[in-house]
Design goal:
This protein is α/β, with parallel strands linked by helices and 159 residues long. It contains 5 helices and 8 strands; from the N terminus they run E-H-E-E-E-E-H-E-E-E-H-H-H. The strands form 2 sheets. Strands 1-4-3-2 form a 4-stranded mixed sheet. The chain has a 4-stranded mixed sheet with strand order 5-8-7-6. Helix 3 runs parallel beside helix 5 and helix 4 runs antiparallel to helix 5. This is VOC family protein. InterPro entries: 3_dmu_93_MTrfase, Glyas_Bleomycin-R_OHBP_Dase, PhnB-like. It comes from Candidatus Accumulibacter proximus.
Length: 159
């Protein structure tokens, strides 16, 4: 790994599967080196995949197959800024259709329990609108959504 700072994500034996899914789903993502355990350890055996180096949209990560002890939570999420509804739909649908689950306000969770915020740039612009009434309308619309609907956000922003 060349990066001085890398996100380490804990998995229960599925780090390689997760890395492969992220690499095929998100642009500028790839699976790198796969490290196998040099000996037995509490959650696995010699030769099992222990660590997977990968990138998610250019962000260096490692997946550590550490066992069932720790679970992901909403305290950590990847936030993905999307440019249009087609990109928003593609990423959201890929996560959900691969065993994930929907949440509120553009959040969803993948099948490994990692949270994702699929956030259209139009939403960010709408809730930062200098016209505070327009921003409030867009924010209220977002609060009613799972996957973000850009047309509905823009309609709410316009009033």
């Amino acid at each position: 790994m060349l990066s001085k700072n890398t996100i380490c994500l804990w998995f229960d034996g599925s780090a390689l599967e997760a890395a492969q899914f992220y690499a095929k789903t998100f642009p500028d993502s790839a699976v790198g080196t796969i490290h196998r355990a040099p000996g037995d350890y509490p959650s696995g055996q010699q030769g099992d995949v222990l660590v997977v180096e990968f990138t998610v949209m250019g962000i260096p990560c490692i997946g550590l197959n550490g066992g069932p002890e720790f679970k992901h939570s909403e305290a950590f999420s990847f936030q993905v800024a999307t440019d249009d509804q087609a990109e928003t739909d593609r990423l959201w649908d890929a996560i959900i259709s691969n065993g994930g689950q929907e949440s509120a306000c553009g959040w969803c969770k993948d099948k490994w329990g990692l949270s994702w915020q699929i956030t259209p740039r139009a939403l960010t612009a709408a809730i930062a609108d200098p016209d505070r009434a327009a921003a409030k309308r867009a924010f209220a619309a977002m609060m009613q959504m799972g996957k973000i609907d850009i047309a509905a956000i823009e309609a709410a922003r316009r009033g």
